[in-house]
Write a structure and sequence with these properties.
Elements (H helix, E strand, L loop, with lengths): L1 H21 L3 H15 L29 H83 L9 E2 L18 E4 L5 E3 L4 E8 L5 E7 L4 E10 L6 E2 L4 E5 L9 E7 L8 H7 L5
Antiparallel strand pairs: 1-2, 2-9, 3-8, 4-5, 4-7, 5-6, 6-8, 6-9
Pfam family, one: Peptidase_M23
Protein name: Peptidoglycan DD-metalloendopeptidase family protein
GO molecular function: metalloendopeptidase activity
């Protein structure tokens, strides 16, 4: 039993002696204490069972102050340093956890902000698309209304002109013995506008009439434009009021650039083009 106890004492003492190697700065502190102990002849620490902190010293003599015991002082310092190390580790762990939480919160906030930005952009695009469609629809309706009014309206064929031979004028130059239309004099190349919406019945060379365009209206009335220098429409094409159908010229039986205009209502002969247009509200 004595030898076993001695072996146990030696093991405890070894553990005590190894502590300074594990705690920075403790070796120098113990060296100073050993020199002081040698000078003052302090009793040597003997091995004893380790406490929960892993260190034990011999019991102090009855009536002595434990704080003056070098072994107890060493144990206290070791425990303080261990507690301080644990506190540092715990503080670092908490700081790391807090830093990760802050980083995660910042990332989540950034993701949320990005989602909100994308959603706002999508709403803005949707609103712009809605406005664009509304504007397109408004323009479409305006254009439909404009065309409707054009179809229902009548205009003069030339913006500027002077009257030459009027309707019904007698003369051997006309095969019928009288003028079946009205001549409107204008410079060659002047655009000719369609008087009213209809379908092109003819767009071709017509002998003494030169290049001629004939428009048939919905009520069967035919309007012919003769002596054109060029034609801008073809047979079968629908043309609306005010659309350019050709240009003033002097082709066929003509003495100079002018537009020979004839109006022939359905089921009857020609009528005075100026009187007919005035009856449709055209200021001419």
């Amino acid at each position: 039993m004595a030898s076993a106890q001695e072996g146990g004492d030696a093991s405890g003492a070894d553990r005590v002696r190894s502590i300074p190697d594990r705690i920075p700065g403790l070796s120098a502190f113990l060296s100073d204490k050993d020199e002081e102990a040698a000078t003052t002849q302090t009793p040597v620490i003997t091995a004893a069972p380790l406490t929960s902190a892993g260190v034990a010293v011999t019991a102090a003599a009855p009536g002595s102050d434990p704080s003056s015991d070098p072994g107890e002082a060493l144990r206290s310092r070791i425990l303080q340093q261990a507690d301080a190390q644990e506190a540092i580790v715990e503080a670092e762990r908490r700081a790391e956890i807090e830093a990760k939480a802050v980083t995660a919160a910042a990332e989540e906030a950034a993701e949320l902000a990005e989602r909100e930005r994308l959603e706002a952009e999508e709403r803005e695009r949707a609103e712009e698309e809605r406005k664009r469609k509304e504007e397109e629809e408004r323009k479409r309706k305006e254009e439909e209304e404009r065309l409707r009014q054009l179809r229902e309206s009548y205009v003069a064929p030339l913006a500027s002109y002077s009257l030459s031979s009027g309707y019904g004028a007698a003369g051997a130059m006309w095969s019928s013995g009288y003028h079946t239309g009205t001549d409107l004099v204008a410079p060659a190349g002047t655009p000719i506008k369609n008087i009213h919406t209809g379908v092109v019945k003819e767009a071709a060379w017509a002998g003494s009439y030169g290049y001629r365009v004939v428009i048939e209206l919905a009520d069967g009335t035919e309007i012919s434009y003769s002596h054109l220098s060029s034609m801008a429409v073809v047979a079968g094409q629908e043309v609306v009021t005010g659309e350019v159908i050709g240009n003033v010229g002097s082709t066929g039986n003509s003495t100079g650039p002018h537009l020979h205009l004839e109006v022939q209502p359905a089921g009857s002969g020609t009528v005075d083009p100026l009187a007919w247009m005035r009856g449709k509200g055209v200021a001419i």
